[in-house]
Specification:
With 181 residues, this protein is an alpha+beta fold. 42% of the residues lie in helices and 14% in strands. It folds into two domains: 13-85, 2-Layer Sandwich (Double Stranded RNA Binding Domain); 90-172, no CATH class. The chain has helices at 12-15, 19-24, 38-41, 67-85, 120-133, 138-144, 149-157, 160-172; strands at residues 5-7, 26-31, 47-52, 58-61, 86-88, 105-106, 109-110. The protein is elongated, with a radius of gyration of 18 Å. It starts with a strand and ends in a 9-residue tail after the last helix.
Amino acid sequence: MKEVLVCSGGAYPFITAGDKEFERSCRLEFYIASGPGGQKRNRTYSAARATHKKTNISAIAEESRSQADNKEKALKRLKKKIALQVRKDFSATGFKVHPEAAALFLKEGIEKINSKNRLYPLYCAILLDSIYTAKGKLSEASERLNSSTGKLNKVISSDKDIFNAVNRLRSSFGLNSLRFS
């Protein structure tokens, strides 16, 4: 099992960075993808692997024949992976929703947003940081997010990556895993 990666700023500085700035903080590698796809696929360096230099987290994309498309997809996937794996230590300041995503966590509670929304990695990081600061307890995390436990559970269950990340966090605090509903 992976340990929880805790950084002073959490995932926020990485996932809120502009596209060019984020790309500069990554190491990009291009390679020839293997598998079916015809002559073009096996002859060009179109597959992309993006590795974040500070966290050493990486993501790949190799489904397109275009190197530029694969690079963009790998960087987008990398932002989400960082959001899922890097936690912020709020012990000194107390948990606060990141200002850039405050509109997503209104007084009515948490709502699911589309995974194609540019704020989705930030949304994931905030959800997981609230659960991390609550030591894996969904009831406490939902209070921090001005939501009900049922709504939080519904959001967690809507994305298998978030669901798995929550279960890894709960496991690190000695709690039972959630069951998929």
